[in-house]
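Fold it.
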Amino acid sequence: MTGSALLIVSSTFQAAVMGVDELYFHRKRGLGRWERIGHPIDTLSVVACLVWVLTVPPSGPAAFGFITLSVFSCLLITKDEWVHARRCSAGEHWVHALLFLVHPVTLATLGLLWPLLHAASGAPISWITADRFLFVAVAGQLVVTIAFCAYQIVYWNLPWRRRESPGR
């Protein structure tokens, strides 16, 4: 499988599930202040991982840096669960569970593709191959993720667009 295809599969599934969460569940119930601030921070943690693989050549210390960013991102996205426990429907909890599953898969995919982005000897798994669209796919994911973060900040935090849920 080509690297860009692998990335597109995992990131497209993540984007689709995130779209359901954002466009259906969040708009249906509104977001409290904690989530309006926290969700863009979650997104920025993914931006950090994408920027890392695009700009830092793979090495032992760099791998430690990427793993640290990825683990931090995976833990960070769970920070809202105490809020979600009180405010979310069963359907939204299920969508969050899917997101908790796919988030580390997408970051692991980035980690596997990272050597191919920098013309290193190859991906750690031999059936993942480089293709000419890989850099474009990762850079495109970065652009889309930054755009989503901007949307989260603007839509949920400008007073005329905000629909705040009851409570915090």
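The chain has one domain: 3-157.
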